[in-house]
Design a protein that fits this description.
By secondary structure, this protein is mostly helical. The chain has helices at residues 2-31, 33-38, 40-66, 74-78, 81-115. This is G_PROTEIN_RECEP_F1_2 domain-containing protein.
């Protein structure tokens, strides 16, 4: 029981750190016009990490609440928002990395094509 509780507290802690740090960074980039133009691809990364952190916070909170009950139905687990967020967040992380990689690849190609 203590191990489970510690695990879920760490979920909440990690989610809080992700959310707070990335919210600060996102606001910093959005507020300053120079940063907004220079760090376009980071804006989506920061927004995604905020969503990821909120998902972790909701998972940790939900699991701490249901620890005393131990049993919960599949339907109950499926109908919670954190379940749906996790289904969307993990594939989204891969797509985000792909989008950033494609952006970098096209930047390099446009540099060499411009030299020709």
């Amino acid at each position: 029981l203590v191990y489970e509780m510690l695990t879920y507290i760490l979920f909440i802690f990690e989610g809080s750190i992700l959310t707070i740090f990335n919210s600060y960074m996102l606001l910093n980039v959005i507020i300053k016009k120079l940063n907004r133009q220079q760090y376009k691809s980071f804006i989506s990364c920061f927004a995604f990490d905020i969503l990821f952190g909120l998902t972790y916070i909701s998972i940790g909170t939900y699991r701490i609440i249901i620890i005393p009950d131990k049993l919960t139905s599949r339907f109950d687990c499926l109908m919670n928002i954190h379940g749906w967020l996790m289904v969307g967040v993990f594939p989204l992380s891969g797509l985000l990395v792909l989008a950033v990689a494609m952006d970098r690849t096209f930047f390099i190609l446009s540099f060499y094509i411009g030299k020709m």
